[in-house]
Amino acid sequence: MRMHRKDNLDARLAACADIMTGADLTEKNMKKAAEMKAYLDYAQLFGNVAPVHMEVGCGKGGFVTGMAQLHTNVNFIAVEKVSNVIITACEGAKALGLKNVHFINCPAEVLPRYIRPASIARVYLNFSDPLPKLGYAAQRLTNPRFLNMYAAMLCRGGEIWQKTDNEEFFDYSLQSYSECGFKVEEVCRDLAAHPFEGNVITEHERKFMEEGRKIFRAVVRVNV
After folding, report:
1. Closest CA to 174 of 162, 190, 192
2. Which of these, 16, 27, 103, 142, could form a disulfide with 173 (CB 3.0-4.6 Å)?
3. Whole-model pTM above 0.85?
4. Tens digits of per-residue pLDDT, 128-152?
5. Which positions ≥6 away from 216 have C-beta within 8 Å?
6. How far apart are the first and last CA of the chain?
7. Where in the sequence numbering do the catalytic residues fall?
8. Is 103 within 8 Å of 21 (Cβ atoms)?
9. Which residues in 66-80 are b (16+ Cβ under 10 Å) and which e?
10. pLDDT tens across 69-84, in order?
């Protein structure tokens, strides 16, 4: 089902320009677009040099705003390609007065345009679309083409934290991490039975847990 375009979307996006970078997708070839560098200046965006964490696929922003409130000594980049969705996240962050969150409205493929190499301490992948059909494997956010991209953006010893409700996708991701040289440090196959301190529960996570579905979690690190 096609999502209904939110009322006054363009004006609302413009009103959030101070906390959101809207991708220039004049170049329709995503690979070429990623090569047109326009790196974000974190010190200018946040007014400090704190570590930067990035959520790829932030949806309506519940996770990143929760994390930003808990970890005021960390800066957060939140990425979402759907303008109709990211506006909810941006407006939520502004309503909370958060100064340590910046949004990028772009497909993940274009992130190398904006994110400087070796500048991110942690990447969060929360309930990414598993894209179960084999023909869509290259579009999964834990496909090697994306993992290699994250590896280039991560600082020495940087991490990826993943949560998903799809076991098949989780197993695929674990295999991809190993193939791409990441060190798998934590694997949890039932987060409800093995909670961890500081977990910010996403909208999807709460729904799945209420339905009794298992949540799978992994923490992996760039090999150093």
Report:
1. 162
2. 142
3. yes
4. 999 999 889 999 999 999 999 999 9
5. 163, 164, 165, 166, 167, 170, 188, 189, 190, 191
6. 44
7. 129
8. yes
9. bbbeebeebbbbbbb
10. 999 999 999 999 999 9
